């Protein structure tokens, strides 16, 4: 059974085609910097040379069109026809309380996802674009949505209830949901294997750091808290998102003439690392500028590192200790300077990094020293494999 997994992020689109009879990867790739200057698709067919397509991609639909053509290309494709794809698994971000687990996609699911788009304006629309585009080229292929919010349904009520009038939760289901759940679930499982310990006996903090970023406290295999909230806007400062701020700021700006639409755009697309640095939402661009002495770029990085450190500290308190800290996603996996800056403020946990191991990019390993009181790991996430497993389970169970 061949499963195509589509994982659309706020400025990226990852994909994998897997033979799930053996969980063998056939091809993978990444469309990055979508809507940003310098967009590129990297297509990696297993057993063949990697191919790059450097061309403007204003939308996720344009990126998906390039990917589909690559999969069936005579030279660097891995299948002869799109008919060989038996199922498609989609990373779907916000399911509110409508979806506590993965589901087979139908018209009702799409309608509910559209209703949830107001809660995830950068992601649910992109997910729906991927779903609709796939339905056009693969009209008879079953599709499954795997929700980022599902893993966090184990949070206790004191972690997900906001200190607002309780009637607002009862009427509108306003609460913390959390995101990146598929990634946090995968890396926690891999962390237990890497440490050769029982996941049900570990207290882990998973740091999914990329253009979108979140942290999860995972106690004994279950999420008990996470930094994102009702929407992916909450928590850490991110590529273009502000993260946690004083909500009264928005009322203040309304009094100065800003509309609701303008404020939403500012918080979701003009804030975070881009807003502070004034340079880019891509951490690589900002790090390069900081290295040349740009003070606003350095401030943006300092704010990000500070938010990550203080959130880790809060989750150590929530779990009454921690056995391991995981770095994952684009920035967490590849930026040694980011990991070092964050861990330099966690010496109270007895963390000691192995400088040589920390210098590696994208390799799964423990990067703390043997005498470090807390394990620190880099674990490249594989949301696609988790999505494919759920897809197979649901499609075969129909």
From TrEMBL:
It comes from the Bacteria. Mg(2+) binds at residues 7, 383. CDD domains: ASKHA_NBD_AcK_PK. GO terms for cellular component: cytoplasm. It is found in: Cytoplasm. InterPro entries: Ac/propionate_kinase (IPR004372), Aliphatic_acid_kin_short-chain (IPR000890), Aliphatic_acid_kinase_CS (IPR023865), ATPase_NBD (IPR043129). Mg(2+). Can also accept Mn(2+). One of its GO terms (molecular function) is ATP binding. It is an enzyme of class 2 (transferase). Its cofactor is Mg(2+); Mn(2+). Its main location: cytoplasm. Pathway: Metabolic intermediate biosynthesis; acetyl-CoA biosynthesis; acetyl-CoA from acetate: step 1/2. The active site is at 148 (proton donor/acceptor). It catalyses: acetate + ATP = acetyl phosphate + ADP. Transmembrane segments: none annotated. GO terms for biological process: acetate metabolic process; acetyl-CoA biosynthetic process. ATP binds at residues 14, 208-212, 282-284, 330-334. HAMAP family: Acetate_kinase (MF_00020). Homodimer. This is Acetate kinase. The lineage of its organism: Bacteria, Bacillati, Bacillota, Clostridia, Eubacteriales. The gene is ackA.
